[in-house]
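dude i think i finally got it to work??
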Amino acid sequence: MRVVRHRDTGEIVTALDVDALAGATLVGASLAYADLRGADLRGADLRHADLCNADLRDARFDGATLTSADITLSTTAGATFSRARLDDARIQATNKPYTGPPGLSKS
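look at this
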């Protein structure tokens, strides 16, 4: 399980089983700053999802629908998007080190 944190406060919102997301319906999901390293999102429906600043390293989005999703400033090294639908998606990916939500201490 991985936690999903609120993008402004860093508070834990929910936990996700990143191994059970293939084919999931996550339309409009708020996954900003989420730790989705290695997540299997093949065939998932992520239309209008907020993945801004998420850690998507090595995630698999093959065949996923990301229409109008926001992937700006997400870390995408090693992520795959083969046959993914990216119509109108906002993409400004970066491979900068993931630092988590603003103001969150790593201690």
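The chain is about 0% helix and 10% strand.
im so relieved honestly
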